[in-house]
Amino acid sequence: MADDGLISVEWTSHRTPATVSLTHEGIRLMEEQEEEHEVEQAARRARPDA
Fold first, then answer.
1. 6-21, pLDDT tens digit by residue?
2. How does pLDDT run across 19-47, given as a tens digit for each residue?
3. Residue 5: CB partners within 8 Å, gap ≥ 6?
């Protein structure tokens, strides 16, 4: 995910992650996926039961 620019990682001197944060691009991707999920859920609710 860091290689894709979706998160940034702050490392300690012991080479372990101290903090991991979403980047702006990571936030945009999550929001896009959330909106797609909401649209899918709305479409399922609108379908008549078979």
1. 999 999 999 999 999 9
2. 999 999 999 999 999 999 999 999 999 98
3. 23, 25, 26
pTM of the model: 0.70
d(CA 17, CA 42): 39
Judge whether 48 and 32 are in contact, CB under 8 Å. Answer: no
Stretch (H or E) spanning 2: none
Token reading at 47: 């379908």
Q: Which of 21, 25, 18, 27 is nearest to 8 (CA)?
A: 21
